[in-house]
């Protein structure tokens, strides 16, 4: 009989060694799932950006090398690098639109410069994330992903129309429609291993249909050498004289980088959960290790002048879920296989021969997932009237400005052309409105600096009573706020902690009053079990009370919501309490 909460489908956890043949078998499946989107995204970006075959050869080679090295690094734990889990790296659709803009505006040199500079923001994300949590909110991140999906649609549709002149005019849409239909049907109805392989099956079916119409050209495979690396002359170099195009596109790259970073945090958390038999508290040191490795991938991509490399989260989780093998040895196999593929150009060239309509259909499926992911991100913390307005206005501006010439007509020149960018306008609108909402929120709250110790409870109680008094809350609401604050502090205290107050961690309490609610933030330098997980465990327990459980049950009773965010060296617990006059 399976114990409750135990995932017996996991045969090998991340820290467990699996037989070499199993690691090789599962690793090759991961390679097959990762290499196709990696090469396809590079090819789509290069073609849409107007680049020649020389750049494409170099970009594919560099992307495979970077993905191989960093996939292996993700599987390990070295200093503050690595997730300690299988995290397949590669080029992702998130950066297609901005990379195309950079290639069109200044070529590979501009793209390389932008990626290198933007990667520094990603590398600092683990440190800055506590400061950015009120700016890069789920509403902002989700809206940017939704606008990003809209900006990618024209690129995908352009690929659908790119067919040889000798074939019938309806070839492109027909091939794309069949590819999209196969991918959708299999995603909706296939199960197990078949669903895992559905993207590759759809690409194969689409390629066969294109060949029947005479729209498949295998010449690239025939011309590619069996082994070798691109010549040094194919390295794109850097643009050390940034102009208006650089400064206009840099904010877009930074926003996409930060949004991707926030998403990658969720990816790492999901991968940890999928790789364990028994649910455990998320190890955020591994999350930060994953972020640091992703940042290196983006940085090295900039140095190489290839589209940014990040983690394929859904592919990684799917591989572990379907095979039951989460051993980090699989990550080493996948990384090594990517390196081998980079040294044998004929194999990646096979992917590059995939007809453009098939590539367009593949990108359309990725766009759908990006858009839905944006919607899920927006609603994950709930939507009120203000958040809905931010999402609606930012999305409308972003989608409406795409392919318009409003700023070019107003101010002209390069700046005007670069500002006519729907992704930039949508992202800036969401950030500006979010910052405005935060700055104009009622300031009847306050800030208290204290110690995470039972001796600080009277001081914290006086602080929250003063907040309730300013808001004119009635006695019942005031008591609920006081109780929630007290139980939060008691829940954060380690079990059996009898340390002196002077040795206790620093605690900062910040109050953010809203209409009918007060949001209390408790920030402490502390490293203990996640409160949200502990609250969730209470639902599963049926017998007796364990030590330290009473404050959790009381906190769940008094607070309308509890969120616990753990960063390196910093815990932030956000508690919302409803009240009335």
Question: What this model shows, in words?
Answer:
This protein has helices at 20-48, 53-75, 96-123, 125-132, 138-161, 171-189, 193-196, 198-212, 219-223, 244-274, 284-304, 313-323, 328-342, 346-352, 356-379, 385-401, 406-411, 413-419, 422-439, 457-471, 475-492, 531-538, 549-558; strands at residues 89-91, 309-311, 447-451, 506-514, 517-524, 561-567, 570-578. Strands 3-4-5-7-6 form a five-stranded antiparallel beta sheet, with helices on both faces. Strands 1-2 form a two-stranded antiparallel ribbon. Helix 1 (20-48) runs antiparallel to helix 12 (313-323), helix 1 packs across helix 13 (328-342) and helix 5 (138-161) runs antiparallel to helix 15. Strand 6 (561-567) and strand 7 (570-578) form a beta hairpin. It is of the alpha+beta class and 581 residues long. The protein has two domains: 20-437, no CATH class; 447-493 and 502-533 and 549-578, Heat Shock Protein 90 (2-Layer Sandwich).
């Amino acid at each position: 009989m399976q114990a409750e909460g135990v995932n017996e489908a996991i045969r090998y956890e991340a820290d467990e060694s699996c037989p070499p043949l199993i690691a090789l078998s599962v690793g090759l499946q991961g390679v097959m799932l990762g290499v196709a989107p990696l090469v396809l995204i590079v090819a789509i970006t290069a073609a849409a950006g107007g680049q020649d075959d020389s750049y494409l050869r170099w970009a594919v080679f560099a992307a495979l090398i970077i993905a191989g090295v960093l996939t292996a690094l993700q599987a390990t734990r070295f200093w503050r690098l690595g997730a300690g889990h299988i995290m397949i790296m590669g080029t992702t659709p998130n950066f297609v639109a901005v990379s195309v803009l950079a290639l069109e505006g200044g070529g590979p040199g501009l793209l390389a410069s932008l990626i290198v500079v933007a990667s520094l923001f990603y590398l600092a994300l683990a440190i800055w994330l506590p400061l950015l949590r009120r700016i890069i909110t789920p509403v902002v991140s989700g809206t940017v992903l939704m606008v990003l999906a809209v900006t990618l649609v024209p690129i995908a549709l352009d690929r659908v129309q790119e067919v040889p002149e000798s074939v019938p005019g309806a070839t492109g849409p027909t091939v794309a429609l069949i590819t999209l239909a196969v991918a959708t049907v299999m995603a909706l109805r296939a199960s197990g291993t078949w669903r895992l392989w559905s993207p590759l099956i759809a690409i194969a079916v689409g390629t066969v249909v294109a060949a029947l119409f005479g729209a498949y050209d295998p010449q690239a495979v025939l011309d590619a050498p069996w082994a070798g690396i691109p010549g040094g002359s194919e390295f794109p170099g850097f643009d050390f004289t940034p102009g208006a195009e650089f400064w206009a596109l840099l904010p877009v790259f930074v926003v996409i980088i930060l949004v991707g970073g926030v998403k990658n945090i969720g990816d790492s958390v999901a991968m940890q959960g999928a790789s364990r038999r028994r649910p455990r508290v998320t190890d955020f040191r591994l999350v930060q290790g994953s972020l640091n490795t992703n940042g290196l991938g983006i940085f090295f991509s900039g140095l190489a002048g290839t589209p940014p490399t990040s983690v394929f989260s859904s592919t990684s989780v799917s591989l572990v879920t379907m095979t039951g093998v989460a051993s980090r040895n699989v990550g080493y196999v996948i990384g090594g296989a990517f390196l081998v593929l980079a040294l044998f150009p004929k194999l990646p060239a096979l992917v590059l021969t995939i007809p453009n309509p098939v590539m367009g259909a593949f990108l359309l499926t990725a766009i759908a997932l990006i858009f839905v992911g944006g919607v899920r991100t927006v609603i994950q913390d709930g939507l009120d009237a203000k958040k809905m307005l931010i999402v609606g206005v930012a999305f409308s501006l972003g989608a409406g400005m795409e392919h318009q010439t409003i700023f070019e007509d107003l101010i002209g020149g390069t700046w005007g052309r670069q500002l006519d960018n729907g992704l930039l306008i949508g992202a800036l609108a969401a950030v500006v409105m979010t910052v405005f909402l935060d700055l104009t929120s009622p300031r009847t709250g306050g800030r208290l600096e204290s110690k995470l110790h039972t001796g600080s409870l009277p001081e914290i109680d006086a602080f929250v009573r003063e907040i309730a008094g300013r808001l004119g809350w009635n006695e019942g609401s005031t008591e609920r706020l006081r109780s929630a604050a007290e139980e939060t502090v008691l829940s954060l205290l380690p079990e059996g902690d009898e340390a002196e107050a002077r040795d206790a961690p620093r605690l900062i309490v910040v109050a953010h009053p809203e209409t009918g609610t007060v949001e209390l933030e408790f920030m402490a330098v502390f490293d203990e079990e996640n409160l949200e997980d502990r609250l969730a465990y209470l639902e599963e327990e049926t017998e007796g009370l364990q030590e330290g459980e009473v404050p959790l049950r009381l906190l769940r009773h008094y607070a309308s919501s509890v969120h616990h965010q753990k960063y390196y060296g910093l815990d932030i617990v956000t508690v919302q309490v409803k009240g009335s006059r």
